[in-house]
Structure formats: structure tokens, C-alpha cells
Amino acid sequence: MAKHAAGLRASKPLSIHVDELMRRLSTRTATIGVIGLGYVGLPLAVEFATKFPKVLGFDISDERVLVLNAGRSPIRDVPEERVGELVAAGRFECTSEFTRLAECDAVVICVPTPLGIGNLPDLTCIFDAAEQVAGALRHGQLVVLESTTYPGTTEEVLVPILERSNLHADRDFLVAFSPERIDPGRDLPLHLIPKIIGGCSERSADAARLLYGAVFDETPVVSSARAAETVKLLENTFRLVNIGFINEFARLCRQLNIDSGEVIAAASTKPFGFMPFQPGPGVGGHCIPLDPHYLAWESKRQGFTSRFIELAEDINSQMPSYVVDLISGALNESRKSLRDAHVLVIGVAYKRNIDDTRRSPAVAVIDRLRMRGAVVSYHDPYVAELDGRHNDWPEWRPRVIVPYERRAGEPSDEASSHRRRRVDTLTSVPLDPGHLARADCVVILTDHDVIDYQAILDNATLIVDTRQAISAEKAAASSARVYAL
Ligand SMILES: NC(=O)c1ccc[n+]([C@@H]2O[C@H](COP(=O)([O-])OP(=O)(O)OC[C@H]3O[C@@H](n4cnc5c(N)ncnc54)[C@H](O)[C@@H]3O)[C@@H](O)[C@H]2O)c1
Description:
Oligomer: single chain
CATH architecture of the largest domain: 3-Layer(aba) Sandwich
Number of strands: 15
Bound molecules: nicotinamide-adenine-dinucleotide
Number of domains: 2
Radius of gyration: 25 Å
Strand order of the largest sheet: 3-2-1-4-5-6-7-8
């Protein structure tokens, strides 16, 4: 990719402060601020702190600030020792005092971009962060937005808020967008993931390139912030659509009595033109279920309907119910009903090897199982507690109407009390022979590498594997009955 693609806005006359910013970035003497110290902001802040003398982390959560300043890490992928060393060396400091943004030469915004009512983009956190930056903005700063958002946000939302400071973008301060492409749980160092940059001007792109070039091996520049925003949406919509397709394909294969796992593995041997996706109980996390709605919303605003997004969303959102039907059917073949059945769920994080349960399809499956009277427990080595009240999944939000009132004469058993209390906390149980043998059905919803699948095969009687965690050969060699998605 060319260093500067065509189309960048010509820069305004150079301010002396911007010159100084460039000097500090290129000599790596700049102070860097990171707003939002979550899954995206914290790893990035830690990387910057190894290259720049001072990184200030900003978060509205006092608890998070305290934990980090004590040298501890709230995120599994960020080693505690690394945070501890950087804090002790004075290279990384966290604060909720946003006036200290003025100390920073470059400020990177990594705050959440959730969905609001009706799946509309909710930019509240970006508004708040932008106002904090505007309040402390000074000449010669670079502001970069990293939060995933719809095309146009940087130029149409962020810049106008920053310019309330009476400073002008591209003359007094610089602005860019750079999407975060981190993949939690994947053992891939951050610096190896090319960092896309889109500046609001050529000079903004140059400054952002100096900033990220300190940490990332490759920093491809696209023609505008709007293009960079759209890159991220394309990547995540691509995943949503392909996961939707492969989920539908897996359902078709079940209908045809064909092992979809075998077919996908065989197709993957093709050295070109095929990229494997795996079926599962649905999509989760803060990205894949949300980001395409940002694109769909913007496209609707332009009078364009993106049918792929709607279709994939529709198929993926049916998967938790499909899995529950699969469990019910499997129990039925053992002459058992789902009602009052003990179901042990393996894995509740939204994907393997992480501890994040936001919008996890496991939460939706558990909810539906309990609605149908099953007694559910779970094991997840990374999630000690599953607290519905703090989960982002719509089903676990408190409701005004309780759907299952206890009917007169109905026994006050454990299952019915679970049905009434849908929003509560579950605790991970050990994965021991006792729990496995007691379960009427063991359901694999997240395929963490550290789980002992052989122990599941050896001790369970009925297994529903939604992640192809158990090979057909191992299933055939076991006395357990195994149903694959
Ligand atoms: N998690 C991922 O894998 C991932 C990957 C790529 C992109 N993204 C995008 O990055 C952005 C951040 O996601 P995340 O997963 O890091 O979120 P997160 O919830 O893990 O962390 C966000 C942090 O921001 C803080 N915060 C919220 N509002 C704030 C404000 N106004 N000022 C200061 N701090 C504030 C929160 O307290 C929290 O600590 C989102 O737009 C997301 O879509 C996430």
C-alpha cells in the first residue's frame, strides 16, 4: 500500500506546536495518553510504555485505576509482571483525572461503542471521552480514535467536539482514526498485526504513523479516517456473514446426515479460494455481534439496505435456540425430557481461551435451557462466576414481566425456582468425574484448549458438542453418545 493513498485532505499551514509534536514522536520522547483501559486500551498502553518514556492511562473506573496503579492486571492477555514493572519504573501511570490529558502529546481513545435501543449505535462513551479531551486540549496534540464505529464518526463527531476548544484540527492539533484489530486469546504479539491508519489530513496520518510505528511493524495508511473506520467494519462484517453461512451449512449437513466438520476440514486442504469458518452456538463478544450494526445503520441512513448483515444476524441469533433443541432431542432419544434434566455446560466465555462473557452465546443457551425447566450448571476454567446482571446479553437484562410465574399446584422444585430467577449468578463447578457423571447431558459451548475432553468422554453419558471439540474418531471410541452440531 502506498504511504499516502490519493484523497487525503491538503494540510493547513503548519503550526510550530505540530512541528514539535512530530519531533517528540519521532525521537520517542512524547508522553502518550490512552483513554479506556479495557481489552483494547490496556494492551496498547503497555506496548506504548515500553517504547515511550511516559504513558498515562485514563479510565472512569476508579477501581480499574487502583488495580493498575498497584501493578496488577485485570486482563488475562496482559501479564501482571509487565504491568508491575512498567508502573514501578514510572513509565505507566493511571488516573481518573482527565485534566492530566494536557500532559500528553498524543491521546488514543479506546472506549466502548455498544448498541443502544433498537440496535442503534450508542456513541455516549465517545462523546464523553471527546469532551474530556476537548476540555484539556492544547496546541500540538495528536488525537486518535480507536473505538469501532460507523464511517464518518471521526470527522463528523469527534472533530467538532474537539474544536469547541477554539483550536482547529489540522492546524493546532491533529486527528486520525486507527482501528484496533486485537484478537483476545490468540497468541499473536500485537506488533505483528498491521496497524491501519486514516488521518483527517496528510499530516495527521504522518503523526499517527510516527506514533504507531514505534510499536507496530507495519502501519499501512489509507486515504481518510472514514476509510479506516470502514476497514474495521468490513473485517468484522466479513466474519459475521461467514459465521452465519457456516452455521446454516452445519444445520443443512445435520439434515443430510453429513458430518459438517469432516467436510470443512477437507475443503480447508484447498490451497486457494477457501477460508474455513467453524459453526457454533452463535456469536459473542464486543465486536462481531455489534459492529455490523454500525455499518447497517449508516447504510440505512444513506437509503441502502445491507441484506447480508440482516440475514447473517438472523441465522446466528437463532443458533442458541437451535442448540437447545439439539439438547432436547438428544435427551429425548435417551427417554429423558429437558425439563428437570441436569445440564452441565462446558465453557461460557464467548470464545476459546479467554475470560470474556460479554454477549456470550453460552448465556443465551443457559437462559433458554432454564426457561424450559433444565437445571443448569457450568464449568469454565477462566470464568469463576457468571453474573447475568452485568451481562450485555439482552435476555439477561432485568425485565418488568416475569415470563414464568409459578402456577398453582406446581412443585417448588429447583428447576421451577431457576425459571423464575432468570437473572442471577452461577458459579463454575469443577470438571470432575462426579459432576460429569451426574449430568444428564454435557454441552460443550466453548472449546478452551485447557479442558480435558478425554475426561468428558470417559465420564459423561450424553454429550452435545457445538464446537467440534471432540473428533469423530474419539467419539466413536467412547461409550458416551456424542452429538455434534
Ligand atoms: N475487545 C476486543 O476484542 C476489541 C477488538 C477490536 C476493537 N474493539 C473496540 O474497541 C473499543 C473498546 O473495547 P474494549 O473491548 O476495550 O472495551 P472494554 O469494555 O474492555 O474497556 C473499555 C474501558 O473504557 C472505560 N471507559 C468507558 N467510558 C470511558 C470514558 N468516557 N472515559 C474513560 N474511560 C472510559 C471503561 O471503564 C473500560 O475500562 C470498542 O469500540 C470495541 O468495539 C474491541
